[in-house]
Design brief:
7 helices; single chain; five-stranded parallel sheet
Amino acid sequence: MDIYTIGFTQKNAENFFKFLKTSGVKRLIDVRLNNISQLAGFAKKDDLKFFLKELCAAEYIHMPEFAPTKDILDSYKKGEISWYIYEEKFMNLMAQRNVEKSIVPELLDHGCLLCSEHEPHFCHRRLVVEYLNEHSNLNLKVKHLY
């Protein structure tokens, strides 16, 4: 099953939506904790719903169960914990939430996980895919768009 990930920072709207359209993304799965921040520009929830429908014929879904808690995210952003501790805490959170049991596989097929980080290396969207591949039988083939 093909799945994509994308971050909206360091991209203008033209490039962001071009990546999604040319990749054949059917739905954007927003895995951010806060999807209404004024800092998100074109990537605010209501704007994304409109642009995805009009420009990409794709749908928008917010899945906060794939987002870190505010405490985990704030600790990492403030430098109180390292990436490796963040990763461990986030993976444990995913396990506690049993996200693999609640996911509808069709949602992920040609879906694209969205968060803010430009690259996936230090981003939880990559961890979501890794977790699901390890704890389900989905066999997700990921392509990071950046």
